[in-house]
Amino acid sequence: MQRAYRLTNNASFNYIYRKGENVVGRLMAINYVKAFNTKVGVSVSKKIGKSVTRNLVKRRIKENFATIIPSILEPHNYVVVARSGIENATFQEIGEEIKKLLSKVHHIN
Question: Is residue 109 part of a domain?
Answer without folding.
Answer: no
